[in-house]
Amino acid sequence: SPFDEIPDAAGMDIKGYVRCGDLPLQGVVVTDGYSVTATDQDGVYRIARHQDAQFVIMSIPGNYEANTVNNIPQYFRRLGKGGVAVERHDFTLRRFDNDSHVVITPTDLHLANRFEKRDIVWFKEGFVKDMDMLVADYRAKGIKTYMMPLGDLTSDAHWYSDNYDLTDYMKEIIPLKAPVFNVMGNHDNDVKFSGDQAGEQAYKDIVGPTYYSFNIGQVHYVVLDNSIWINPPESQSKIEQGVTDNQIEWLGKDLLYVDKTKPVYIGMHCQMSALNISGMNLLPSPHLKEWQKLFNCFIGFSDVHFLTGHTHIQYNVNYSNLGYPNIYEHDAGAVSGIWFWPQYASGAGICNDGAPCGYEVLEADGTDVWRYYKSHGYPATKQFRTYDRNEIHITAARHLPSTVSNAAKSAFEATVGDFFYENKENQVFVNVWNFGPGWSIRVTENGRELPVTRVQQRDPLKLLVYNAGMIIKEGSIPNQSAANGQTHHMFLVKASGPKTTLRITVTDDKGKVYTEDMVRPKAFTARSFD
């Protein structure tokens, strides 16, 4: 067999072949995270190992698959620690037509064994059950689904306080019906260590590489780690948001092997920008350290999408305002919602911005990719929620039991913003959680179109489910930034009277239409999950 021996080459410490059955595969990209090379006509690669390299990683080519072990594709091998011997690592692929495919990108799972271990149950009953049904639907159409969780798979401090770490997470994903390409989040670092390399070593030992690439069909996927772990003793879990120079250098080399007309999707945990509403648009202003270095890697690429999480809210932006019209960012709502607190307090999941708990879905057909947000327990057609402002009046007297202390009542009322006041001006709020570039919203009343304004506003349902729910359950609200959080995807219209029906039509960037005939008055309670 031609695969028996690979002659050594001077200075090359890692070597191996990539094959499909007995056929050598040429042009498959292989890296140690520092150098990037491609296999020759014999399917052979050679790499001069970098002193910090811990893996050799194959960038799976489109229309091939690697075998999975415990639901993880075998795209990497661990290198021996500090040896001088030449190491050989071979990779095997099989042909698989995945030009049409689906990638699910859940984020902020925050599995931790908390709430008497019920967070694991909520994860299974919410996300896993929903995902299983979705994967079955796609399988019935002959379409394969993959999964790329976008970090905060676990909750760092709870590795020790609740005895649940990345080893437990890796067991949790074995039964999922889609192979998993993991992304590291800030809470997947080891709180017992300070500094980025020491903090992420447990992740590398248990999960795998923190940055790499792969291809499915016509789409190039990149995984990056953009939380730089500082974790000084006086400020646990502290990070800086940025992509390290060695990742930027590696990325530049990786992209040399990618057709610039193909879509590129980059999964990483932390969001990149602060946000400002400008008319019906949302304008990003990046806070990611040295973001231009990262963006400049994609000059000449036509269709670049960053997939992020971390915020437990949703936003979609294009970076044209900063001179990068080819670059988009899609920040997804959390599988855990507000760290599972709403499930604990009210029995229902919700995110900081009022979106239901859920996950992003990428549906690729060749180079055409449709993205949508799939809420747990709702059909994919559920993309917004409506509120009749006339019916909303959020005070402690109306929404908290009389037994709650005056201090707790005041703490609650301090978080409700404008909704503390009655307003009978026939206003209607529409929360369209995945609204982004190319989307539109149209509202008519008896056939007459009403002006729609994009506003920054608290979500009233979140105020009841999380803020009031936690006060009732615990006497306090655990996370003030979530309690006071606002959404950037709320839309305001003014009806002519309190009893008119509004026709609300939302159209996404692929022309898919979502509608609701909103009969008013529309009641508002903590059970307003329609």
How many E-type strands? Answer: 34
Low-confidence stretches: none
Mean pLDDT equals 96
SS-based class: alpha+beta
What characterizes the major β-sheet?
Answer: 6 strands, mixed
Overall shape: globular
- Based on CA atoms alone, the radius of gyration comes out at 24 Å
Beta content: 25-35%
Helix content: 10-25%
Oligomer: single chain
Distance between the termini: 63 Å
Tally of helical segments: 11
Textual characterization of the structure:
The chain contains eleven helices and 34 strands. It is α+β, with helices and mostly antiparallel strands and 530 residues long. Strand 33 (502-507) and strand 34 form a beta hairpin. The chain starts with 13 loop residues before the first strand and ends in a 12-residue tail after the last strand.
List the SSEs and their pairings:
Blueprint: E1 14-20, E2 23-24, E3 29-31, E4 36-38, E5 44-47, E6 55-59, E7 64-66, E8 68-69, E9 72-73, E10 76-78, E11 87-88, E12 91-95, E13 100-105, H1 118-140, E14 144-147, H2 158-161, H3 166-172, H4 196-206, E15 212-216, E16 219-223, E17 227-229, E18 239-241, H5 245-255, E19 264-267, E20 273-278, E21 281-286, H6 291-296, E22 304-308, E23 315-319, E24 324-331, H7 341-346, E25 358-365, E26 368-375, E27 384-388, H8 396-399, H9 406-413, E28 427-432, E29 440-445, E30 448-450, E31 453-457, H10 460-474, H11 480-483, E32 487-494, E33 502-507, E34 513-518
Parallel strand pairs: 1-11, 1-12, 13-14, 16-19, 19-22, 22-24
Antiparallel strand pairs: 1-2, 1-5, 3-4, 3-6, 6-10, 7-12, 8-9, 13-25, 15-16, 17-18, 20-21, 23-24, 25-26, 27-28, 28-32, 29-30, 29-33, 31-32, 33-34
